[in-house]
């Protein structure tokens, strides 16, 4: 009797286990067949911010549905870091079932993904008219003359500043246009002296400002052929010199993380913020500071080829090569985000998002004046600067290079000379990127 | 008679077979696969066998060395502090005439039920440049300018150690407390009659009697410190520079932050496996019962 019971128990246990395994595979296959047999055409997309890029997809879906009423888009929101992990592990394991049709990719990761996972992402070269996009966005997407996605939002940078603080220190808007970094530091010193406020923030454990400086002079942490770009690079040396000068001058408030960084300007501790256009949302969170802000072009290096424009962040849409709905997904993206001014107007109006589709820049929406920024037509300014940003290749090893640099930043700030620091960074990077 | 024994044995084996099978499938098989992976290198989905190259790279990798140094530093400083603190607190809370015993026990164990990420974020804000610790120290006139705790290589390590100690002391304390309650109180009475002081009783009676539990907590704390990840990622993100980076965070960076090289990441994980095994072996030899 005992034996029968135990055997039965065993069988049910193993049975249920196997059934559990079997269930999941059944489920996916039935889903797939449902997708193809019914007339509803469904595409799945991954995005990381429901109020920004997720919302953009919603707008695109509505626009596309006008002509394709059967089209349906399922947007799956998850944290950016989770999404990157999921993509990495799925691709490395060669499992394609769990992946969506459309995926959002951070621009610095583009080359890394395309090289590390060949034949995974669809070629968009002939599907979209890339001359209508900001050239530097297209450069980031181009590998071996193929363009692997649809450019999306941009992070064109500006120097946001508090007009009241700068006025107190004796500066007018015109004094802040097209300045150099050394002039910026001098202004910062006066601001600190007259108002007691810091000019900016500094985080020795972050390399965001370095990235902005490098791109403004058409350089990057690594060369297009993925070698370290730290030694014998005048732009990098100048970046380090200015960074150290900002730190030494005492015009920068030390912060340890993102929330402290945002907190410092929301609390009115700093007179300027050098950041991407998407920072507008965080700046506008401080409702009491309305009318006290303005934005000017970022400072530039005193070097040949250096401009008063750069970029921080930004992302692009990719379609998976292995997706069952590849053609539909491509068509959807190219007819909306890849070439529809109405999409960009709505995206700016509803979510404050700035795209890189240049024909949209001449629309009325982009000319609107912002009350928060003292009546300045900020979007028009940003889009104008976006056409000046030098195009660069992010290469495969940006993250490795940034980390190698971060490792030596404390040393630089404590007085190690720039040549030694950069030599160390180069050595560390070469060991890392292999 | 004989067949009945055989039946019982068969049932037993069948019961053991299920978990054994599951462990084989979900634990040992991946371990074997990752061992194979540690001999490969490449990017993303393109891999080649490279023999011992990854292991050679490991020994010349300055970031791995730095991460190992940091991890061993946490281990050498934090684990003894935490275990001694846990033992002392357990001893205090074990006093039969202590009032509000339940309250103290709960209060000290409470950090263990907080999520790793949320407590890390709290510590990050407590030790921010204009955080509560700096404000307190400035109000008390102990410092003039705020200390950038998380931007200084030494202080940031101190913050990490304080954080882990806060989180895990209560956990170990519970082990000691429950083991202490299994010690017959009459032996303490006997010791008191013989004139042994309380301190003497703690070190010559309680500690030896708790030896198996101390060994257990030592091994679990060692292996969890070697795998330290959440706190460092959330409090300092490994910075400043790589001053607080742990081996686990390095593995994470290799797999998910950098151009993915799961082969080399697997090699680094095996370095942790090796260290845990060696340290556990040493602890068993030094503290374990001799047969």
Would you give an account of this structure?
The complex is a heterodimer of chains A (434) and B (291). Chain A has 434 residues and is α/β, with parallel strands linked by helices. Chain A folds into two domains: 2-154 and 313-369, D-Maltodextrin-Binding Protein, domain 2 (3-Layer(aba) Sandwich), CATH 3.40.190.10; 156-311 and 392-432, 3-Layer(aba) Sandwich (D-Maltodextrin-Binding Protein, domain 2), CATH 3.40.190.10. In chain A, 45% of the residues lie in helices and 14% in strands. Chain A has 16 helices and eleven strands. In chain A, strands 1, 2, 3, 6, 9, 10 and 11 form a seven-stranded mixed sheet that branches. In chain A, helix 7 runs parallel beside helix 9 (234-249), helix 8 (208-216) crosses helix 9 and helix 15 (398-413) runs antiparallel to helix 16. Chain B contains 13 helices and two strands; from the N terminus they run H-E-E-H-H-H-H-H-H-H-H-H-H-H-H. In chain B, helix 3 (62-93) packs antiparallel against helix 10, helix 10 packs antiparallel against helix 13 (262-287) and helix 12 runs antiparallel to helix 13 (262-287). The longest helix of chain B has 36 residues, at 2-37. Classes of the chains: A alpha/beta (434), B mainly alpha (291). Chain A: This is ABC transporter substrate-binding protein. Chain A: It comes from Paenibacillus antarcticus.
Compact summary:
Chain A has 434 residues and is α/β, with parallel strands linked by helices. Helix content of chain A is 45%, strand content 14%. Chain A has helices at 2-37, 53-65, 80-93, 110-116, 135-141, 163-168, 181-195, 208-216, 234-249, 258-266, 280-283, 326-335, 341-351, 378-386, 398-413, 418-432; strands at residues 41-47, 71-77, 102-106, 142-143, 146-147, 150-162, 200-202, 252-254, 272-276, 293-296, 311-319.
What topology does this entry show?
The complex is a heterodimer of chains A (434) and B (291).
Chain A (H helix, E strand, L loop, with lengths): L1 H36 L3 E7 L5 H13 L5 E7 L2 H14 L8 E5 L3 H7 L18 H7 E2 L2 E2 L2 E13 H6 L12 H15 L4 E3 L5 H9 L17 H16 L2 E3 L3 H9 L5 E5 L3 H4 L9 E4 L14 E9 L6 H10 L5 H11 L26 H9 L11 H16 L4 H15 L2
Parallel strand pairs in A: 1-2, 1-3, 7-8
Antiparallel strand pairs in A: 3-11, 4-5, 6-9, 6-10, 6-11
Helix pairs in contact in A: 2-13, 7-9, 8-9, 15-16
Chain B lengths: L1 H36 L2 E4 L2 E4 L3 H7 L2 H32 L7 H9 L6 H11 L5 H8 L13 H28 L4 H9 L4 H12 L1 H16 L3 H6 L11 H11 L4 H26 L4
Antiparallel strand pairs in B: 1-2
Helix pairs in contact in B: 3-7, 3-10, 10-13, 12-13
């Amino acid at each position: 009797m005992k034996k029968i019971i135990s055997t039965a128990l065993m069988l049910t246990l193993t049975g249920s286990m196997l059934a559990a395994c079997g269930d999941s595979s059944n489920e996916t296959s039935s889903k797939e067949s449902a997708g193809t047999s019914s007339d509803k055409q469904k595409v799945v997309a991954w995005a990381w911010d429901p109020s920004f890029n997720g919302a953009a997809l919603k707008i695109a879906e509505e626009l596309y549905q006008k002509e394709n009423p059967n089209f349906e888009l399922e947007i799956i929101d998850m944290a950016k870091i989770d999404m990157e992990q999921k993509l990495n592990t799925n691709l490395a394991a060669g499992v394609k079932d769990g992946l969506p049709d459309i995926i959002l990719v951070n621009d610095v990761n583009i080359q890394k993904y395309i090289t590390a996972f060949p034949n995974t992402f669809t070629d968009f070269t002939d599907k979209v008219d890339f001359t209508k996009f900001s050239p530097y966005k297209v450069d980031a997407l181009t590998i071996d003359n193929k363009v692997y996605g649809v450019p999306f939002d941009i992070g064109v940078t500006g120097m946001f500043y508090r007009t009241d603080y700068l006025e107190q220190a004796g500066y007018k808007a015109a004094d802040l246009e097209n300045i150099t970094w050394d002039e910026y530091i001098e202004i910062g010193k006066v601001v600190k002296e007259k108002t007691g406020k810091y000019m900016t923030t500094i985080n020795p454990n972050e390399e965001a400002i370095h990235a902005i400086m490098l791109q403004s002079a058409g350089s990057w942490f690594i060369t297009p052929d993925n070698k370290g770009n730290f030694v014998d690079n005048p732009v990098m040396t100048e970046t380090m010199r200015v960074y150290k000068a900002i730190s030494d001058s005492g015009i920068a408030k030390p912060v340890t993380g993102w929330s402290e960084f945002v907190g410092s300007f929301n609390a009115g501790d700093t007179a300027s913020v050098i950041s991407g256009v998407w920072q507008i949302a965080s700046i506008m969170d401080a409702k009491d500071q309305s009318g006290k802000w303005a934005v000017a072009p970022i400072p530039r290096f005193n070097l040949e080829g250096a401009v008063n424009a750069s970029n921080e962040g930004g992302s692009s849409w990719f379609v998976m090569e292995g997706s069952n709905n590849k053609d539909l997904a491509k068509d959807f993206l190219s007819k909306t985000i890849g070439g529809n001014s109405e999409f960009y107007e709505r995206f700016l109006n509803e979510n404050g998002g700035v795209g890189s589709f240049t024909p949209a820049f001449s629309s009325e929406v982009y000319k609107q004046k912002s009350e928060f920024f003292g009546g300045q037509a900020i979007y028009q300014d940003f889009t104008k600067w976006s056409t000046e940003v030098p195009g660069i290749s992010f290469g495969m090893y940006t993250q490795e290079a940034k980390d190698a640099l971060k490792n030596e930043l404390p040393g630089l700030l404590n007085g190690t000379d720039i040549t030694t620091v950069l030599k160390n960074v180069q050595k560390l990077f070469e060991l890392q990127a292999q | 008679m004989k067949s009945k024994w055989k039946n019982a044995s068969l049932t037993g084996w069948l019961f053991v077979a299920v978990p054994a099978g599951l462990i084989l499938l979900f634990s040992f098989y991946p371990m074997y696969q990752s061992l194979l992976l540690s001999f490969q290198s490449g990017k993303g989905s393109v891999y080649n066998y490279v023999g011992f190259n990854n292991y050679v790279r490991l020994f010349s990798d300055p970031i791995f060395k730095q991460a190992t140094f940091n991890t061993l530093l946490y281990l050498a400083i934090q684990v003894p502090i935490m275990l001694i603190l846990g033992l002392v607190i357990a001893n205090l809370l074990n006093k039969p005439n202590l009032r509000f015993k339940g309250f103290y026990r709960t209060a000290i164990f409470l950090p263990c039920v907080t999520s790793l990420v949320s407590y890390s974020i709290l510590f990050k804000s407590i030790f921010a440049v204009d955080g509560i610790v700096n404000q307190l120290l400035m109000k008390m006139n102990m410092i003039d300018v705020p200390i950038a705790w998380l931007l200084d290589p030494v202080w940031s390590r101190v913050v990490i150690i304080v954080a882990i100690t806060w989180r895990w002391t209560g956990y170990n304390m519970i082990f000691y407390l429950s083991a202490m309650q299994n010690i017959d109180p009459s032996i303490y009475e006997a010791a008191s009659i013989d004139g042994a002081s309380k301190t003497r009783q703690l070190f010559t009676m309680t500690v030896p009697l708790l030896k198996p539990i101390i060994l257990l907590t030592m091994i679990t704390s060692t292996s969890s410190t070697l795998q330290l990840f959440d706190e460092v990622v959330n409090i300092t993100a490994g910075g400043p520079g790589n001053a607080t980076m742990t081996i686990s965070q390095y593995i994470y960076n290799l797999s998910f932050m950098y151009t993915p090289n799961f082969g080399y990441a697997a090699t680094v994980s095996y370095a942790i496996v090796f260290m845990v095994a060696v340290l556990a072996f040493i602890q068993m030899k030094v503290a374990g019962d001799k047969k």
